[in-house]
Amino acid sequence: MAEVLVLVDHVDGKVRKTTSELLTIARRLGEPSAVFVGAGFDAAKETLARFGAEKVYRVESPEVLEHLVVPQAELLAQLVADKAPAAVLVPSSPEGKEIAARLAIKTESGLITDAVDVQAADGGVATTQSVFAGSYTVSATVTKGTPIIAVKPNSATPEEAAGAAADEVLDFTPSDAAKGAKVTESKPKQATGRPELTEAAIVVSGGRGTAGDFSKVEDFADSLGAAVGASRAAVDAGWYPHTSQVGQTGKQVSPQLYVACGISGAIQHRAGMQTSKTIVAVNKDNEAPIFELVDFGVVGDLFSVLPQATDAIKAA
Ligand code: FAD
After folding, report:
1. Taking Cα atoms as reference points, which of 37, 63, 82, 36 lies closest to residue 176?
2. What is the reported pTM?
3. Would the CB of 206 count as within 6 Å of ligand 1?
4. Does an H or E element contain 69, and which?
5. What is the Å distance from ligand 1's center to 238 Cα?
6. Which region holds residue 68: left if phi is over 0, alpha if psi is between -120 and 50, else beta?
7. Does the beta carbon of 268 sit less than 6 angstroms from any atom of ligand 1?
8. From the CA of 153, how far away is ligand 1's center (Å)?
9. What is the DSSP letter of 179?
10. Comparing C-alpha atoms, which of 23, 141, 156 is closest to residue 89?
11. ipTM given for this complex
């Protein structure tokens, strides 16, 4: 069975959920082989095996991550040449998409980004893409070279399947051309204890309707184990960090459940969340445009609705 390469997304060996999703998808197409770059493999191995990675190609040299994404594209190109995989899967994050694009050029292969579904098809790979900020879904397939596919977070439910995760340390040195830019400092974000916004299964966002008090939004999010997002109005007002902004000029999220609290539903906000599987809004204006989009709407004051919902969830 042909190998399917999955680029592992991890922080010091803590494997992100997107990787278990990609390994699940890879099993539909062939035999998953993980590609692990950087330190922390011992911590990652169990997770990679649990989600079905049969092999793990790894590169420990810190040089690969020191020079942004270009060396990773070179590494994957080398593996494509050596292993002739059935496909290469990467997360559809800004970094993942840059790696995928560079890899597609190096291997003269077709590239599909923002895939929300990937299935084996006759002699190839069939994908569904979400484009124009979720306004259209497009069916696409790669017709040249190795299918390079960047898959959006939450596009598959991770399914366990024991794999051997037999590791092979690769001898890889980035070319001089790949060393054109270097990371000079890297500071971890202050930990909130909440899931990462773009990969969370549930996102609760607050807007101008919070009037700057996100405590009820955060309490509700915590009762659900959700990430917290914000509209640009809330971010511009300095009420919530820019890294939490959802929308056209913020992050694109596609969780199982998105709850918009005190957010009107401007087109630029929708651009970042309208592909969410289920959308709920809490807004005191029953004519707010967000209600055109929702699966469930609550007309009410978020300062009254959210504490009641939080209490009910905690009591359940
Ligand atoms: P508002 O539109 O002011 O809505 C506040 C809502 O809260 C209202 O519907 C109101 O009824 C409700 N409300 C008030 N009090 C309560 C209460 N107590 N309980 C319940 N409901 C209450 N916006 C983004 O979000 N993300 C982006 O990435 C983004 N990019 C942009 C890019 C460009 C180029 C431009 C021009 C704009 C962009 N915007 C973006 C801004 C966007 O157009 C809106 O201005 C913004 O989304 C509005 O945020 P909001 O819904 O929080 O505020």
Report:
1. 63
2. 0.81
3. no
4. none
5. 14
6. left
7. yes
8. 25
9. G
10. 23
11. 0.99
Q: Which two tokens stand for residue 103?
A: 């890899």
Residue 95 tokens read as 């970094």
Separation in Å, CA 159 to CA 27, 226, 275: 10, 21, 22
Q: What residue owns the CA closest to ligand 1's atom 4?
A: 264
Q: Is 252 in the pocket of ligand 1 (CB under 6 A)?
A: no
The residue whose CA has the least distance to atom 25 of ligand 1 is 231
3-state secondary structure of 57: strand
Are 288 and 264 contacting, i.e. CB atoms less than 8 angstroms apart? yes
- Strand 10-11 to 14-15 pairing: antiparallel
CB atoms within 10 A of CB 122: 6
- What is the residue type of 154? N
Looking at ligand 1, which residue's alpha carbon is closest to its atom 53?
A: 208
Q: In what order do the strands lie in the sheet with 124-131?
A: 136-141, 124-131, 111-121, 148-151, 87-91, 3-7, 31-37, 55-59, 166-169
pLDDT tens for each residue of 69-112: 999 999 999 999 999 999 999 999 889 999 999 999 999 999 99
